[in-house]
Design a protein that fits this description.
Layout lengths: L3 E10 L2 E11 L4 E5 L6 H9 L6 E6 L2 E2 L10 E4 L11 H11 L4 H14 L15 H14 L4 E5 L7 H18 L2 E6 L2 H7 L2 E6 L2 E6 L1 H6 L4 H7 L4
Parallel strand pairs: 3-8, 3-9, 6-7, 7-8
Antiparallel strand pairs: 1-2, 1-4, 4-5, 9-10
Bound molecules: adenosine-5'-diphosphate and magnesium ion.
Length: 238
């Protein structure tokens, strides 16, 4: 049985169908990329999973629990966005520990977990810095650590690198991949950048107009695109 199983996810805005019967599964520890052009429904799909948007139809099962009727905070799903959305008045440690504090976890326990996460994202020397004192890449590493702190079952990353410079983007994508593998974290990573998708995924789901039009390993998608759309999008088309 799949760790994550989306069935028939359907979403409309006004009269417009934005997600059209999307099915998607993920195994535990899998890194899945949703790849598709702007407006195809990637963010909306993540928002449905995290509970920020409700569905017209469909079901979302995570670790054998149906999520659709649960509030976002009950879903054990973490999310990282393109904009870092850190708390500007809290330093790095307090940003990372925020979710644990809200859960009423003891200070010493929080301290220990925050220290571990600081090491994981290589920011131990910045633990007392404030967000405005950090680079974009460092801020995004804090955002990642902050999401990981509450030990979600699933992490959703919505174009987390797209506000960063090309070089930092490449480094950080490998860091995210390494972190994901090390922790065995199940992740859905949204991007419109085909190179990014090819580099970090176990499996790529190509989306167009509210549907998943092809899914497969990076190699399968690259070498055997099933339609002209996929071929063009993945850049393997002359
Ligand atoms: P992507 O993340 O792939 O760029 P989105 O999921 O943001 O795409 O958007 C999919 C479609 O849904 C777009 O046509 C967008 O304009 C529309 N949409 C997204 N959010 C809303 C909203 N809150 N109200 C109305 N339309 C929306
Ligand atoms: Mg989006």
């Amino acid at each position: 049985m799949s760790y994550l199983k989306l069935t028939g996810i359907t979403k409309k805005f006004g009269g417009t169908l934005v997600l059209n019967q999307v099915d998607l599964t993920a195994s535990k520890g899998e890194m899945i990329t949703l790849l598709g052009p702007s407006g195809c429904g990637k963010s909306t799909l993540l928002r449905c999973i995290s509970g920020l948007t409700d569905l017209e139809a469909g079901s979302i099962a995570l670790d054998e629990r149906e999520l659709t009727s649960l509030a976002p905070r009950e879903r054990e799903v973490g999310m990282v966005f393109q904009s870092y959305a850190l708390f500007p008045n809290l330093n790095v440690m307090d940003n990372i520990g925020y979710g644990l504090k809200m859960k009423g976890i003891k200070k010493e326990v929080i301290r220990g977990r925050v220290d571990e996460l600081l090491k994981l994202v290589d920011l131990t020397d910045k633990s007392h810095a404030y967000p405005h004192e950090l680079s974009g890449g460092q801020q995004q590493r804090v955002a990642l650590a902050r999401s990981l702190a509450v030990q979600p079952k699933l992490m959703l990353l919505d174009e987390p690198l797209s506000a960063l410079d090309a070089k930092i983007r490449k480094n950080l994508r490998m860091e995210i991949r390494q972190l994901q593998q090390k922790m065995g974290m199940t992740m859905i990573f949204v991007t419109h950048d085909q190179e990014e998708a090819l580099m970090i995924s176990d499996r790529i789901c190509v989306m167009n107009q509210g549907r998943i039009v092809q899914e497969g390993s990076p190699e399968q998608i690259y070498t055997a695109p099933r339609s002209e759309f996929v071929a063009r999008f993945i850049g393997n088309y002359n």
